[in-house]
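Below is a filled-in request sheet from our internal design queue. Each sheet records the structural input a requester submitted and the sequence that came back. We keep these sheets so that new team members can see what a complete request looks like end to end.

REQUESTER: design group, bay 2
PRIORITY: normal
MODE: inverse folding
CHAIN LENGTH: 510
BACKBONE (tokenized):
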């Protein structure tokens, strides 16, 4: 079969041409086997086996992956920089195309090395706590490298030739779907990449530039169809202001607000409204410069892997504590360090979280527990111990990242972070939190002698409180639905590839 098509997510390409092209790239005579890999959220993935023993992973982007050309061009440049400059183990890219008309394949694709390892999720359950800690140490070592290199701009990485005007003009044939990015690039003179390396030396690398952001925040929930500033940005304040203007433009111009599909609708429950989202965004823009941390290094620009779940980490099957590579670099953005700082999701767990350098404690009656109760208590202790040890590693080896975690406890952090998705949700919580900020106003950087910039009457504050109550009822109604139909709503919101169809069918019946 020469054409492969995804039914739910249209993506048509010529698999025979793809296989032949891959064979030429790795100097094989022909491809002898094609095997489907579980799809990424925004990709179709195939394993191509050659007659010379080489395996090639082919990743074909689906239309929802992001902007044509830019998404894949940035991904490849990001992988090269991470591999060569940040010394991160990841697949070597053999070849790629961001222009479906460049090759007979008929779609954007990346051909890359198959990592000689297994996904961490396959071996994690039976690993000892000691071995799990070794994996955590290895990930923290990567994060130390990522934290040691900072950039002068915010945006996404590209090869310089991929954002030159002659290249962009060639892409205009794809139509309006890429027009906003095209205009962003045309209007800006983009200099060579400048970064500060781990020794504090300023480095200029003419191979790369920082260009428009390919973050999912720029594309999801209809944002891809709206015109706004996608970067790059030269300062932290510019970066954050652009978030407010982006969300405002989308709230104003999208024909329908993107309410979560499972959001309950009933009398007495809260219904999202444009004017309330705009009010929250105006509050954000008024408060913004006072929300930034006094320590500017916490907001410095960094390249990071923000999807460190167990499917994106490959380990050596013979030495499961050795990471052979990380996949999943699509839509990477150079963004503030405090947006990157979080524990790797593969050590997330159900149960109380520890904070700071807090250590786990077994319950006082642990030795009296029996059966499942004792197993559950021991499992929680081990999970918490791993998180505690990760934070201790940060505190000792990457103190700036640890300080970012501490900053995330602040109201300022909440207001900076929540603003990124006000198009979709959170406007009432945002307004309520912004009002509460007045109580700690004088403790924020640069506020001495400055009046609190939000002016809300008693009536307005009461209206916000009433809306928060209604939204709380809505969330409680949703929680009850998820509990009743827990087989449809997985706890970690991740559905296995093989289970996706059954989940969607069940949701449709609901």
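RETURNED SEQUENCE:
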């Amino acid at each position: 079969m020469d054409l492969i098509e995804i039914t739910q997510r249209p993506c048509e390409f010529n698999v025979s041409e793809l296989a032949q092209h891959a064979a030429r790239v790795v100097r094989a005579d022909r491809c002898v086997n094609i095997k489907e890999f579980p799809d990424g959220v925004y990709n179709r993935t195939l394993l191509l086996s050659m007659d010379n023993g080489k395996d090639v992973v082919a990743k074909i982007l689906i239309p929802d992956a992001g902007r044509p050309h830019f998404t894949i061009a940035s991904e490849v440049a990001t992988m090269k920089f991470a591999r060569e400059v940040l010394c991160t183990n990841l697949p070597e890219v053999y070849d790629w195309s961001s222009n479906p008309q460049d090759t007979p394949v008929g779609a954007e694709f990346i051909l890359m090395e198959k990592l000689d390892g297994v996904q961490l999720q396959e071996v994690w359950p039976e690993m000892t706590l000691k071995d799990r800690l070794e994996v955590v140490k290895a990930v923290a070592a990567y994060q130390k490298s990522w934290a040691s290199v900072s950039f002068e701009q915010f945006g996404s990485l590209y090869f310089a030739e991929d954002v030159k005007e002659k290249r962009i003009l060639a892409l205009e044939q794809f139509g309006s779907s890429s027009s906003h990015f095209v205009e962003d690039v045309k209007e800006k003179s983009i200099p060579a990449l400048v970064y500060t390396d781990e020794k504090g030396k300023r480095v200029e690398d003419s191979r790369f530039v920082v260009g428009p952001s390919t973050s999912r925040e720029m594309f999801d929930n209809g944002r891809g169809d709206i015109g706004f500033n996608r970067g790059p940005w030269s300062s932290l304040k510019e970066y954050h202001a652009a978030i407010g203007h982006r969300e405002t433009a989308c709230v104003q111009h999208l024909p329908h607000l993107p309410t979560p599909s499972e959001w309950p609708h009933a009398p007495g429950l809260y219904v999202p409204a444009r004017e309330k989202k705009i009010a929250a965004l105006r509050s954000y823009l008024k408060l913004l410069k006072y929300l930034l941390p006094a320590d500017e290094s916490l907001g410095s620009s960094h390249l990071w892997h923000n999807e460190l779940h167990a499917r994106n980490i490959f380990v050596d099957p013979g030495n499961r504590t050795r990471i052979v590579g990380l996949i999943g670099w699509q839509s990477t953005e150079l963004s503030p360090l405090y947006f990157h700082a979080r524990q790797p999701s593969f050590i997330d767990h159900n149960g109380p979280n520890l904070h700071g350098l807090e250590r786990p404690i077994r319950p006082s009656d642990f030795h009296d527990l029996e059966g499942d109760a004792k197993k559950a208590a021991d499992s929680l202790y081990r999970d918490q111990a791993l998180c505690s040890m990760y934070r201790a590693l940060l505190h000792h080896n990457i103190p700036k990242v640890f300080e970012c975690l501490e900053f995330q406890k602040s109201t300022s952090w909440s207001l900076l972070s929540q603003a990124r998705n006000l198009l979709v949700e959170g406007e009432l919580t945002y307004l309520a939190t912004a009002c509460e900020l007045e109580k700690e106003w004088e403790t924020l950087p640069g506020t001495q002698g400055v009046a609190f910039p939000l002016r809300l009457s008693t009536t307005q504050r009461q209206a916000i409180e009433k809306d928060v109550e209604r939204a709380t009822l809505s969330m409680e109604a949703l929680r009850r639905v998820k509990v009743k139909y827990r087989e449809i709503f997985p706890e970690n919101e991740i559905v296995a590839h093989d289970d996706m169809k059954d989940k969607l069918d069940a949701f449709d019946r609901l």
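SHEET NOTES:
- Confidence is low (pLDDT under 50) at residues 1-9, 170-178.
- The first strand starts at residue 3 and ends at 4.
FILED BY: M.R.
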